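Second opinion, please. Please look over this fold, written as tokens:

===
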Amino acid sequence: MHSPVVTAASPQPTPTTRNRMKGDQRRQHFIDAALHLFSTRGFRGTTTKAIAEAAGVSEALLFRYFPTKADLYGAILEQKARQAGFEARLETFRREAKRPDDWALVHQVLRAIFDSYERDPDFERLMLYAALEGHELATASRQLFGRPAFALLRDYVEQRQRSGVFREGDPSLLVFGLVALPAYFSMTHRLLGFAGSTSSDRAAADLFTQLVLDGLRVHADDLLDRSLKNRPGKAARG
């Protein structure tokens, strides 16, 4: 929701009409105004005073709903989490991890990344700017979205390594490798407009899942090399 355009047919709201907003409506109005300004002016050019002006109220009223900028950033991210169904996604990841089902889990993660960029590319672009500028919103996003998902995937990789299914190596690096492919594809495809493929997101997710698992899993050649390295007397023959 953007600030209303003032025209002869659309008079500027008076304080009386503005005050008729209910608490939840007012809160949402502030969130929408903040998102609009962040996306048009950037973070450095957006102050709480500017957000209040865009919402058509005083800065003091803004502080009644959001005492600090951190409170406002948290409200924005919580809204995005609800819209994306983040908790439901995370629960799906947990369910596939318990089975365990490598294909289903990796495929779900890839589809979640693709869906996010397709559903709300403007917000993903905003978050990229936030990360590049070292803005508080990027830090808050990592706390809310990044860390729970990353921790779940890292634990899963460690579990599969102990089972001998996934290759040895730093579990955190392996998780970065898992998410890097779909994230980079989504950024170039959705944000930068690089149309390098006509494949659907489903086809891309299928192919990328296979590529990721090919990299994560131990293969026959790996097992042979491991067997040769552990053969008794090998070290003595040097």
The chain has two domains: 15-67, 84-219. Residues 1-18 have pLDDT under 50 and may be disordered. Residues 16 and 57 are 11 Å apart (CA to CA). DSSP finds 13 helices and no strands in the chain.
